[in-house]
Amino acid sequence: MTANHVFILDHPLVSHHLSALRDRATRPCEFRALVSRLAMLIGVHATEDIPMREVEVQTPITTTMCEQLNAEIAIVPVLRAGLGMVDPLLELIPDASVWHLGLYRNEETAEPVGYYDKLPRSNAADVALVLDPMLATGGSIELVVRRLQRWGVSDIRVLSIIAAQPGLDRVARDFPDVKIYVAAVDPSLNENAFIVPGLGDAGDRIFDTPQSE
Ligand SMILES: O=P(O)(O)OC[C@H]1O[C@H](OP(=O)(O)OP(=O)(O)O)[C@H](O)[C@@H]1O
Ligand SMILES: O=c1cc[nH]c(=O)[nH]1
Ligand SMILES: [Mg+2]
């Protein structure tokens, strides 16, 4: 099942960079660059229908009607791994604000545990772009979506690089209005709730903090 609001990028550049990202031999320096490149491609796609307004612009030659963004856009990286996607999104949308949320998964239960929340209580953004390269069980994203709904955001868009089908189905079922943009959907999770085939632990690979195996 793939819901109406799930968008899977189908592009040769996405496939090419994803293959290097998955490769266990890819070093953190290159891994970071690949996360950034893929985040930019996903970011372009995820903003295709963002609200716009007409403005009159004076060129050196004449006046002409142009379009500009017409929405308060919040970039919401999920620590840690989501940090790797912030710079390319800010490159695309320099006027966006960045609100950090910190979560980690309990290793035994795979349940998300919140440890940092920088979201304000009021003045919700019009659009929230949630950044997290991995959507596995979907538990972390569901916590984030609930928090953004409490803030008052109505247009929530999740940008992930790889989603596992079970987690994607769960989020799409529980939050049918949330739009989800991914570069790939992998079929399953292993006994530790890691995505299969996946790419391992995205946060550890971005920040070069390998855990003992
Ligand atoms: O869909 P879920 O099952 O909730 O799993 C996905 C979450 O797991 C990873 O974070 P992790 O706990 O490894 O934290 P980190 O980014 O600090 O490494 C990933 O970046 C997501 O936030
Ligand atoms: O496969 C997975 C699952 C959760 N988090 C990751 O970084 N990778
Ligand atoms: Mg991690």
Write a structural description.
This is Uracil phosphoribosyltransferase. Its EC number is 2.4.2.9. InterPro entries: PRTase-like, PRTase_dom, UPRT, UPRTase/APRTase. Residues 9-209 form the Phosphoribosyltransferase domain. The chain has a single domain, classed as Rossmann fold (3-Layer(aba) Sandwich), CATH 3.40.50. α1 (12-22) runs antiparallel to α2 (28-46) and α2 (28-46) packs parallel to α3 (86-92). The chain has six helices and 13 strands. The strands form three sheets. Strands 1, 4, 5, 6, 7, 8, 9, 10 and 11 form a nine-stranded mixed sheet that branches. Helix content is 31%, strand content 31%. With 213 residues, the protein is an alpha/beta fold. The chain has helices at residues 12-22, 28-46, 86-92, 139-151, 165-174, 202-207, and strands at residues 6-8, 52-58, 63-69, 73-79, 97-98, 101-105, 112-117, 127-131, 134-135, 155-164, 179-186, 188-189, 195-196. The structure holds 1-O-pyrophosphono-5-O-phosphono-alpha-D-ribofuranose, uracil and magnesium ion. 1-O-pyrophosphono-5-O-phosphono-alpha-D-ribofuranose binds at residues 78-81, 103-105, 110, 112, 132, 134-140, 167, 193, 201-203.
